[in-house]
Amino acid sequence: MEKKNIVFIAKSLDGYIAGKNGELDWLFSVPNPDNVETGFGPLMDEIDAVVMGKNTFDFLLGYEGDWPYAKPVFVLSNSLKTVPERFADKVSLLSGNPPEVLKTIHARGCYKLYIDGGRTIQSFLELDLIDELRITTIPILLGGGAPLFGDLSAALMFEHVKTEVFLGALVQSWYRRKR
Amino acid sequence: MEKKNIVFIAKSLDGYIAGKNGELDWLFSVPNPDNVETGFGPLMDEIDAVVMGKNTFDFLLGYEGDWPYAKPVFVLSNSLKTVPERFADKVSLLSGNPPEVLKTIHARGCYKLYIDGGRTIQSFLELDLIDELRITTIPILLGGGAPLFGDLSAALMFEHVKTEVFLGALVQSWYRRKR
Fold first, then answer.
1. How far is CA A25 from the centre of its chain?
2. Which domain holds residue A69?
3. A154 touches chain B (CB under 8 A)
4. Which residues of B touch A139 (CB under 8 A)?
5. How many domains does chain B have?
6. Is this complex's ipTM strictly greater than 0.90?
7. CATH assignment at residue B90
8. Measured between beta carbons, which residues in chain A are less than 8 angstroms from residue B141?
9. Which residue of B142, B155, B171 is in closest CB contact with A160?
10. From CA B54, how far away is CA A114, in angstroms rounded?
């Protein structure tokens, strides 16, 4: 089976995924009254599982809407021991470094993975474990916050696959790792 | 006369304008053998003058190619007192904060300005003095270096104007400040 690790995330023009106080409201600063598809639905169809860190999971725990994922979710944490009962059939906890957790996830039959959350993405990139970046840029400069990308020991080249503009405002570019 | 301050710059996927050791070679990692126009030429026609900081000017002093600007260049520096003889007819030195230097430049009949260099762009953005961003993203993660954007006291919203892909790889987006 083809293994693939995909990042799909929105960032500000200056590269933040959350504001200085963790704000996410700016993500919805471009109105989408007709629910134009911006890639999340097709991504859910394409992947076998979602992989996220504890911060992203913590955000989901406080989220009041419907559970957004149609596929199994793996939460990476070395501190968390259990998940709340209501998530027990949706979420598996895994500890260890990225190669270890990938080995476990692949062994469970999940090969195409949606890698989510800033720190998780950064730790996968540092080990050159990301195959595709699908990045949506929101037309705002936040001026501070939680950065999407972090320091890397070595530069990583990507190939541009495609760019689409949604709602006249959101620029989504797909990149494939050039190895 | 309409006053306009335009940023036109290339950045890496992770938002750097120079690498960890000041490298700029990655800017040329996408070959352009036929010299496809990616916006610099039309920008030169459109503007009245170039405004840059000392770091960008220092880079130009060491640059061996032809002088790239067809318009007057204003170099902002509070330390520099003179420019080398060979640049005397091309470059004016100005000191002071952004509103002060803009007043001087406008008084010399230059209204449409190309604002260049990371720190200069950052200081103009902090004072909300940038009207247009034209940003070209190179498909590489540098993992560190000189960032294009810096901290801001307040978030700044922009409107997306257009996005073009050059050479199948360079994603250039134009944004207009939404005031």
1. 17
2. 4-177
3. yes
4. 157-160, 175, 178
5. 1
6. yes
7. 3.40.430.10
8. 125, 149, 152, 155-156, 158
9. B171
10. 44
